[in-house]
Amino acid sequence: MNPAxxxxxxxxxxxxxxxxxxxxxxxxxIPSAELRFKYRLPFYYVDNRPxxxxxxxxxxxxxxxxxxxxxxxxxxxxxxxxxxHMRSLRYRSAEEIDAAILSDVLREAYSVRFxxxxxxx
Length: 121
What we know:
Blueprint: H1 3-10, H2 15-29, E1 34-38, E2 41-46, E3 49-57, E4 60-65, E5 78-79, E6 87-91, H3 99-111
Antiparallel strand pairs: 1-2, 2-3, 3-4, 4-6, 5-6
């Protein structure tokens, strides 16, 4: 197992279950996504560029997006408090994962993957 997979499998429940389900949905929607361990987190890269990451904190798992400044869909479902350039979908249980919303956000994130990390202006 690589360090990113260890991070996921060593997490306690329900966070492990959330991250495993997110993994499955990410790979289903973006088959070219490559799981790496960057910044001490499981981080997906697409076309050798940062795409999204999973971070287990206190009582939730964030699925953060690297180019969130360019995302326009489901912003009402995303967290951005205290962060200028990142947004995330936050889950406290696997039941909270709405596969349709997640798929839509993943597809949009994929469509902006070549844009700069931050919006200019």
